[in-house]
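Hey all, quick one. A colleague (J.T.) asked me to put the flavin-adenine dinucleotide job into the tracker so the inputs and the structure tokens live in one place instead of scattered across chat threads. No bug as far as I know, just bookkeeping. Sequence used:
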Amino acid sequence: MNEIKQQKQGEQVQGRPKRGYADLEKEVIDLGLCARCGICSGVCPVDVISHNARGYPELTGECIQCGRCVDTCPGADVDFPALSRELFGKEYDPDSTWGEQRRVVVGHPSDDTVRKNGASGGLTTALLLYLLKTGKIEGAGVVGMDPEYPSRPKAILATTEEELRAAAKSKYTIVPSMEVLSEMRKRKGPFAVVALPCQIHGLRKMVKTDPALAGKVKYILGLYCHYNMEPDGHLDCLRALGIDPDEIAVFEFRGGGWPGGFRAVMKNGEEKQLHHINIKNIMTVMLRLYGSKRCYMCTDALCEFGDVGLGDFWAIDYDDEFGDCSWSTMASERTDVGRELLESAERDGWIEIRDIPPDRYSRRTENFTREKKTEGFVRLRRFDRQNRPRPDFHFEVPSVSLKGHLMAMTYASFGVFRQPKLRAMALRILFSPFGSLLDRLNTWRKEVFLKFGGN
Ligand SMILES: Cc1cc2nc3c(=O)[nH]c(=O)nc-3n(C[C@H](O)[C@H](O)[C@H](O)COP(=O)(O)OP(=O)(O)OC[C@H]3O[C@@H](n4cnc5c(N)ncnc54)[C@H](O)[C@@H]3O)c2cc1C
């Protein structure tokens, strides 16, 4: 064994039994708890973990038993109450819809090209550009599309303006994007990362398991996340529409205007907008057909432990001055780092933001957050009763009302459509004119329901 390996091994294992990749397999992967976030490969000091096509980790060399992969992994264990005390000095309330936030804003970049190229309103990319161009970061961990396979997302460490701009827009599919941490380890930093809630859980754990690397990640920009899709979700949509994913030059999950939707540009230049249903409604169905099972066990929708959480701002929920905020991103400021970032980017003219008072928060954001919490609580309690493995978030799982149970049961019943033949049929309907009609009927049903006092 060479000197570096010996040193790293010695540093990590003093005073406790050796742990390593085999433990990650045993405690997380084999139990179905891997979130495929990429933290394990990112923190591996000898780069012997990579990810297969479905995003699962694989050992590609000799494990030095430093334990970082398993100890940083958020798959089976994240201490939410401890994180809450460390970050906010407050006890954790698992039932709080919005989490600990100082301020909520809606806004967009001052640069209209960044705004119009964003998923929601381009605020995330604008913040990254601000940090890069003012020398506050050396680069940012983001997710672009693979130039070799343009229908597949890929993690990148963006160090130029062009790379950051090209990586804009959401990729609604599992990407173990925290693998870029291994590249950050080799550079000076500091860096920003764009991360989903599960990835943020791992990044916060990293402060203890690898403080030097954690010190390089100065800004954590979280993306709100209902759930994420299996890597074949969008590819199956293409196939259901008779499109060969290999014939695609550009694929976008949020392309073609605001709020946009699945869009493909073929190698022969032909452009295809794949659905006419609002992206939110498409994703509601897609997340039932292709949602990752580990996502269904998560209760954090709004990046409760990020520096800033960013999500869609549903201007259609408002009939006042907020109603003209299309092409905008909503942002929850959570930490001092987040506050400083939003304030300085605004002061220096990179972004335009305004406060949303608590009684004006979006109903849609509130609904999906409550849904994720309620469904998560129902599942976690059921798994406990059945003695099945589940992530330990170190809080007592709140009980759920009868209404919550019924909602969870209704959504769970969509699970039958995960059967391949039924799923293919559901996709063909969803992406057809008949699907649009069904969607319009559903929207009408919800409006009537709302009018008569529903939620
Ligand atoms: C899987 C997923 C689920 C989401 N679910 C919701 C939801 O339910 N409700 C809601 O309001 N918002 C959700 N969002 C967030 C929303 O889609 C926008 O990303 C967010 O509003 C920021 O928009 P923006 O225009 O400011 O970002 P942009 O300026 O377009 O920048 C987006 C940044 O995110 C990075 N990125 C894209 N995909 C990923 C990914 N998979 N993992 C990590 N980084 C990524 C990009 O590289 C880019 O840097 C989700 C995002 C993702 C990726």
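Adding what we noticed when we looked at it: The domain at 3-72 is CATH 3.30.70.20 (Alpha-Beta Plaits). The longest helix spans residues 363-385.
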